[in-house]
Amino acid sequence: MSGTCLALAEKKHNCIQREGALQVMLAKMWPFGSSNVAGPSNSDLYRDLRTKDEQLQSKDYELKELLRAKEEQLKAKDAELKELLRAKEGQLERKDAQLERKDEQLERKDADWKKQCASKERIMKELNEVSILLIKANDIVLGLRERRNVRGALEYIAGDLIDGRGGVQNKLDLLADDAEFMEAVQAIAHKQNLRLLDVKRCLKGLYHTYSKTMHGSEAVVTVRVTAMSAETEVAVLMALFDKYGIAYDLQRDA
Question: How far apart (Å, rounded) are the C-alpha atoms in residues 57 and 111?
Answer without folding.
Answer: 79
